Predict the structure of Replication restart protein PriA.
Amino acid sequence: MPIIAKVIVDTPAMTVDRPFDYLIPEQWQDVILPGMRVAVPFGPRQLLGYVVAVADVTALTDTKKLKEIVDIFDVRPVLTPEMLALGEWMAQDSLNFRISIFQTMLPNLMRGSYEKYFVLKNWDNTAAVKLFEGSETLDWKAVKDSEFVTALQRWIQAGDIETVYRVSSKETKKTKRALKNCLTETELIASLESLGNQAKAQRKCLAMLLELEATELWVDEAKARGISDAVLRSVAEKGWVTIFSKEIDRDPYANHHFEKSEPLDLTTDQETVFQRIFEVQREKIAKTFLLHGVTGSGKTEVYLQTIAEALKLGKQAIMLVPEIALTPQMVERFKSRFGKKVAVLHSALSAGERLDEWQKIEREEADIVVGARSAIFAPLTNIGLIIIDEEHEATYKQEDYPRYHAREVALWRAQHHQCPVVLGSATPNVESFARATKGVYELLELPERVNNRPLPTVEIVDLKDELRQGNTSSFSTVLLDKIKDRQQKGEQTVLMLNRRGFASFVMCRDCGFVPECPNCSITLTYHKLRHQLKCHYCGHQAPMPPQCPSCQSEHIRQYGTGTQKIEEELLELLPDIRIIRMDVDTTSRKGAHEKLLTAFGNGEADILLGTQMIAKGLDFPNITLVGVLNADTALNVPDFRASERTFQLLTQVSGRAGRHQLLGEVVIQTFNPDHYSIQLAQYQNYIAFYNQEMGLRKLTGYPPYYLTALIQVTSTDERKGEETIANITGFLKRELNEQTILLGPTPAPIAKIKNRYRYQCLIKYKVEPNLRDVLRRVLETYQKEIRNGLTVSIDFEPYTMM
DNA sequence: AGCACGCCGACT
DNA sequence: GTCGGCGTGCTC
């Protein structure tokens, strides 16, 4: 009989990132299992914790220290043994805290909610009774900032009051009012006859109940049939029906109807790819495929059919898509093919909806999970296939704690379940493609668009020439002519404004002064709506100065371009053009994204104007022109992946044009027409891009030729930060191989955020078997410095180095 | 992360 | 003398 539970407690700190032993009270001795959530006393507090193991003995020498588990929150484990093992691996591999990992694996509502309150014990203490306002308890929050804190401390010492810490789960169920018929058919008829003539509404109600086959009915529905609340109350009073709250699942797609779709015929290429994946599915081995298919080559149909095979084999499947591509269009495709078997997880769900979807998976009511990054932790127990669409997308890497890459988690789970992983992309991550050429992954290709649709023709426009010809607008002559042409033909245009590394800022024309955030080393962004300057990192706001604060000149104005400004500019050039604008402003409301896309799909606009969010997943037959207004802003970012990102973005957005009957055209406007990432995007020539990029990576010593880890130090004290990063770099130099390259120490590209100075050092290495141990030692050393406003963080294979 | 414990300066 | 500041160590 296990009497000891090993528990990871809810405190994300290095010193407690290990299991603590607790006694299992007798009544729970065969109830508590690994993976369950419990409440445990931890120091003076009570915390939520995850049982990671049960045992007969404790390794603790002083067994008097053992405390008992005080509460349990689950009847069955919420974390499977697989998830516990995965969590352990993630903790070791990425130096994450175990508690943070477990919490990301589960819906937010399963986290603990904490209460602290006082209980009055001595009612003779009149001052206390007064403060408690005659009640037995007093909430800590109500007094924590008041002048009574010292008095309370005194009373605790005297034993007049006690502090109570309580942890509970936040889970709630959504309920809906329902009515239950308490009468038999004969009783119903009798009651009907007993009613007087004036009780027409009650008669109608009973008549309805008679017709009803079920004994229960939603109150909503009764109302819809013309039975009012008042009538329900009177029949309930007579005991004929009871009204109660019934738990329901929140189904975010409850009001959608999905047309059933059938598998499409596959092209020869699709068939070859499908068969190869299917072969491995039957063999039940862990193998990773890289599916390189040009835009419009029908990757999604292959996904759908391999998933169908997984189901036929009695298995389940996970399909990850970038958050931004988790559009209603995408969900529609899955729901219409697989119906109720699909669970969808994305950031637009409310906490309750997310919990319900999770539970639907846990109860094995869903066999297919479609979702963004964290859906890789879906509690499926019999996975037969994992697909990551647009595998090159940066959103698969979580950049804050716990740091993880969904691709790596997918590979781990595939190993556990012995099933294939399919990484799909038109523009694979350079590292992934390198692995495919080396045979670590198996390369599968879809080189042609379905129905032999040609790729769109791409024209590159040099904005320097436009300027020379005196065109200072955001639209080149070529692009504007083509837009006009489409408008006349009734075809549609997608315009993308690339916002990466780019925002509208303010500058003084006379002295060049640019307003910066006082807390962060970043230029302030101009917001037209409020006529304000805003910092995107700390939220600092300032009014737009009427004069230059530096030279008093009035020639201070906004530079750079936002979608709003583009919209105005275009309306000035083409007054009768209909534009739908998609950016953070117009899509922040729930469902707005879907609404705008539907409107565009219905032909309610000539132009869809947006930021990167429109580059993916759009599939409308009438789009024949794609314009990229500024292709190169992403090139100016200090990041070794800048070219790769630019190439990927341009290729993706170009792929939106001419996907169906009509031919597509693309216009790319740039100041760097000769840059290889732009040149090669013109022909969607991934292989040429890959080769060129690999040459550069080799020369500069970046992935995949080197592995990387980024150490970042932040400090409120500039000197201390500088000192610390220097010490760490020195330490690393001593501990690591001679061949390992250390870039730094240097200030981070954004040298200050929220008044914290930032420094970094990039480790580039080939073989470092002890790297994790060495870095763990670094973290341990500076762990106590957190108190002095210093943080040290480590990111393996970073995606952004800002 | 919190919280207690403990060691120093400035007050009744 | 003691109240309360915050540096340090511990939590099964």
Summary: The mean pLDDT of chain A is 86.
